[in-house]
Amino acid sequence: RQDTSSCEPGAEHYTNMRHLHRAFARARSTLASTPLDKPLEKPIFFDMCHSNNAARVRLWMALKRPGGMGHAIESRMLTYPDLKKADFAAVNPLKKVPALILPDGAPVFESNVILSFLEDKYGDAGPRLTPRTPEGRAAMELLCRVHDLYIASPNTTAPGFSHSQGAMYLSYGWHGPERGMDLPTRAAKIAEIWRQLCWLEAELEASDRRRAMVSRLHLDKFTRDPDAAGGPHLLGQLTLADLTWFPTCVFMEFMLPRFFGWPQLFDPAAADPAPTPFPRLAAWYSAMRAEPAVEAVRAEIWAYWEEMEAAGQFKPIVDEIAASADPTLKLTYGVPQAVQLNYQQPPPAGKGTGRYINQPDLGDVVDEHVAAEVTMRDARELHPPASLDALGFALQSWPTKCDDFEDDDAVVATYYGEMMDLVKAASGAERVFIFDHTVRESGNTNLNAAAGGSAAPVPRVHCDYTASGAPRRLQQLGAEGIYSRLRGRVLTPEDVEELAAGRFAFINVWRSIDDSHPVMQQPLAVCDEKSVAEEDRFTYELRFPDRTGENYSLRHSRAHRWYYFPRQTKDECLVFKVYDKREDGPRFVFHTAFSDPSSPADAPPRRSIEVRAIAFFDPPELEEPVDAMRTAQGEPFAGR
Q1: Percentage of the residues of the chain whose pLDDT score is greater than 70
Q2: Pairwise CA distance, residues 210 & 147, whole Å
Q3: Rounded to 5 degrees, what angle do the CA atoms 471, 477, 481 make?
Q4: What is the pTM of this model?
């Protein structure tokens, strides 16, 4: 391999071009099935200093054996113009690096194929870079395959012909129409990169948990590979997966923070503009850089991109992003915002926390809250997406046919049935009862709606039920009369008691009812319950004339992990649990409206509807005939 100082565009990379042309000629002779006049002395590897796919092979040769593999493999450095020459097409018809010519003249291309061949052929030259067990090798192949399909190949879930990584550096302005892309395509491919990094981080966390379990339980026979235990690499031990991902991560390290506003992904100590969202990946990347040969390859790639930045390659991308007025195109990931949420103040001695509703205040409860700063994360960045089982909340696309949310009868007749189906789909419940709904508008001040009116958003952290209050609320609703569409009658107290004996959950569904705009004012935030300590919760009483309801309030903690779904549209529903009888998962999702500092000054008012449902997961079988045509239009409580 030539000195890397000659890696600038247009530099001369070969001291004897006749050797290169002779290699090309022999490769063409092989492709034409013409016998070679003389075999090569050793394979020839065609490299390019800034190619992430070629760099993984370069890493293999540097790490396989002290001093490299030059005794067995000849390396030659190409520039991008060399790829366009007809001679190189004989080596790799795709006109890409890396490429390898075997001694008999046969060409080998595709970096994963080259790496697998070299490790198979020269594995004994140094430490093995493939796991010893079938399970370990399968895990390695999966990591390599995901990288090659979804990051470094055009075969991604994002639109267009280019690989996802190209979204970081390809543009019409620099590369022309053949290799450039428009901004929506770029945004889709940038999203693909984020998704795959989320997947990789989750895989590393899961691998850590598996190794910890094996160690804790002394289950050595289940160890995927003895060499992997406790190592700092993707699979514990150094494998081809590390060589595959590292050079591409150098691209990401250089480009994503600099041109797309991402945090420093691979720096465990970085804090500006935010800590890394991938701490396990950052630790791996730092461990890789501690190896001098790896750091040398990073320096080669980094120096090239610094030169290209100085030459102006990234300017068309930066200008394109700056000129865009489309707020739906997301290019920055992993940077949450600081917002103020209103947390309830615990009561003074001798008083409770709560408020009186539709009756005089007797002064024995207080209702005070204080603003506290929290970190608000974009829930659309969660991969896998949020679900009721994992986080207690989920976003569902669920259009509605209800066209008048101010008409309670129309809401009950049309919307309730739609929401029953949604709650079933989101939760897996067998039966669902919808018992209430509230329309809220940001211009209002009253938190409780008057009959036929709307209420204000609730700008305080709360959860609608407590562990003792939710079962009591179910009994109250049963006493008031829940109409069952399946049974065609109002449920009896005995029916309600049977349902309460199994698992049930109170679930809310929140959506915008604005036909023209997404939610840009007072959006709804939800908290990951795993971040809430039990001692943070305390009871808040809602004292109605005929009953007392119980909410949970929350003491502020920096540990709370808050999320929201920016620009939620009318067709999107936020579904979240406010009580679940089952105790081995999310049960109480705290939520609140909040002022979003990223909202425009002229953001339209928020108009939303929330419905409240009870979901039953193992109800008793019905013994009576069901009249599917019977409905309960106009009933105060309707369900099925």
Answers
A1: 86
A2: 22
A3: 145
A4: 0.86
